[in-house]
Amino acid sequence: MTAPPLDPTGADRRLRVVYVAAADAAEARLLGTGAVERRLAACANSWPIRSVYWWKGRVERAEEHALLLKTSAKKLGALMLYLARAHSYAVPDIVELQVSRAHEPYVRWLLESIDPESWEPAPRRRVTRPVSRRAPAGRAPRRTRAPRPRPY
Fold first, then answer.
1. Range of the domain at 91
2. 36-57 burial string, b = 16+ CB within 10 Å, else e?
3. Is residue 107 packed enough to be buried (19+ CB in 10 Å), middle (13-18) or exposed (0-12)?
4. Domain presence at residue 133
5. I need a labelling partner for 92 at 20 to 30 A (CA). Which of 35, 111, 136, 147 fits?
6. Could you tell me if residue 81 is inside a domain?
7. pLDDT tens per residue across span 83-126
């Protein structure tokens, strides 16, 4: 298992997360299943939410379902287009969320799930190790002497 990078300033540009508010559990399930079956997203999570928002000049309240979809940068545009067309709302809430860090094995699984050709390993950091002292080629290594016994 690899540890997440210590410096969160470099965003993981391979992974994209999309948030969508759906009218109900059935619509969230339909949108999530459709995105995963079309390989536009590797997985979808949904849960009930209570929303308060402005709509046509007044404050509205609604029981909705939030949907979180994980995808790749390559599939983001197609996923957002699918969600906009399949959603029941006139103005659907479809938002891409910034991913600052991600667990490398999870990113690998995600990319392999939706597009096996799109997976590229993360750049490896060069590890420097101390250089060992070896005898030149063709010569036997120097032998060390045993310590002299000490007189008491």
1. 15-118
2. beeebbbebebeeeeeeeeeee
3. buried
4. no
5. 111
6. yes
7. 999 999 999 999 999 888 888 899 889 989 987 765 555 555 56
